[in-house]
Amino acid sequence: MSTAATSTTGPDHLWSVEEHLEDILTTVRPLEPIELQLLDAQGCVLVDDVTVPVSLPPFDNSSMDGYAVRVADVAGASEEFPAVLEVIGDVAAGSADLVRVSPGQAARIMTGAPLPPGAEAVVPVEWTDGGLGEGPVSGMQARSLAPEGAEGQVRVHRPAKVRAHVRAKGSDVKAGDLALKAGTVLGPPQIALLAAIGRGTVRVRPRPRVVVLSTGSELVQPGEVLGHGQIYDSNSFALTAAARDAGAIAYRVGAVADDADTLRSTIEDQLIRADLLVTTGGVSVGAYDVVKEALSYAGDEDEAGSGVEFRKIAMQPGKPQGFGSIGRDHTPLLALPGNPVSSYVSFELFVRPAIRTLMGVEDVHRPRTRATLKSDEALGSPKGRRQFLRGKYADGEVTPVGGSGSHLIAALAQADALIVVPEDVESAEPGTEVEVVLLG
Question: Residue 7: CA atoms inside 13 Å, Cβ hemisphere, count?
C-alpha cells in the first residue's frame, strides 16, 4: 500500500518529482531470494558473497600445443643445432595418468593438459620438427592420423625458460578468494566464473515480472489496418521493451478499451503473474480516462485490495501520475500518462527505479552528468515545472532533439539523453551547463 494513499495530501497538491519517486521507492521492496540454476539466474542479483572452493586453474597446465620438457635439455637449442629428445607419450587435456619426463625426454602436450611430473616448461610445436625429422612445423597432426607422433624423437629448435607456456595453479583465482560480491548482477562472464568454480546453483533475487498494458479504444495493434480516428499502440511495446532493458521479465497485454469494468477485470487476471503492474493512458481529467475511474483511491481499500492514488507532478511531460497497490498481495501499480513521450519519460524516472529496487540492485538510477547545452536558441520551460527534453549527448555537449511536444515519437527514437531544466528556470540559454540523464 502506498504511504501516500494514507496521507493528508489533497487532489490539488502538486507533488515534486522527488516526493513521488520517494513514495514509490519507500513502498517497493526487493523480491525474496530464491535458489536458481545458473542459466536461470542470468540477469539476477546475487544475494550472498561467493568464495572460491577450488583454485583456477586447479593444476599447472599447458597454454600451448607442444612438448613438455626439462629446461636443461633444451638450453642452447637452435635450428642448426637442435636438442634431440626422446618422445615418451602424449598428455591430453583431461589426462589422469601422467608420464614422467626424465632427462633427455619430452612428452607431447595439448593446450589445457596437466604439466607432467619432471617437466619444467612447454615448447610450442612451432619450435620443433613435430617428430617428423624435418624443419619447423606449423602444427600437430591428429593422433589418429599419426599415432607414431607420440613416439620416437623430436628436435627442438629454441631454448625455453622455466615455466614457459605454463599456466600456474591458482593463477586466475585461489581457493578462499572472493569470486563475486553480493549485489553483483549476473551476466555471462559471472555465470562462467560460477560454473568454473563448480557452482551449479546460486542464491539470487529473481528478475521481477512486470505486466504492461495500455488503454484506449483508439488503439490498434501494429500490423492491423487503421480505421478513422485510430492510432497504433506504441506505448505498450515501448514500455515492455524498457522493462526488459531494465532487467525485468516483461509481459505485454494488448490495449484495453475505454471501459472501467473491462480494465479492472483485465488487471485482476494479470495479478497472478505480476510483481509490478504498469498502465499507460487514462490518468488525466478526461471523460474517458478509465484507469483513473477504475482504480482511484477512495479512502479505504476495496474488496480487490486497490489503493491507487492519482497525482499531479511538477514536471513536463508527465504531470498526471498514479501509484499504489492492488490485489490481495498488494502488487505495486504505476499508472502513467498516455502520450508516448510522457509515458516513456515517466517510465525512466519512476518505473525503472522501481524495477531495479525489486531486483535488489544497489544503484537504481540512470547515470547523470553535466553538459554544455548546444542549441540555436534558448529552451523555454514552464515556471514551477521540471522539464525533461530529449537530447543527443556527446563529448560533454548535449543537443536538443525535437520539440517539447509529448507526442513526438520520432524525436524520442533519436535521443540518448534527457535534458533537465529545473523548476526555477524558465529559459535555458545556449552554452549554459545543464544536467543530463543518460539513457544509453
Answer: 16
Q: What is the pTM of this model?
A: 0.84
**Minimal CA–CA distance to 327: which of 216, 205, 211?**
211
CA 135, 138, 144, 149 torsion-angle sign: positive
Residue-wise pLDDT for 260-316, tens only, equals 889 989 999 999 999 999 999 878 766 557 788 888 754 444 444 458 999 999 999
Inter-CA distances, 371 with 344, 419, 423, Å: 22, 9, 18
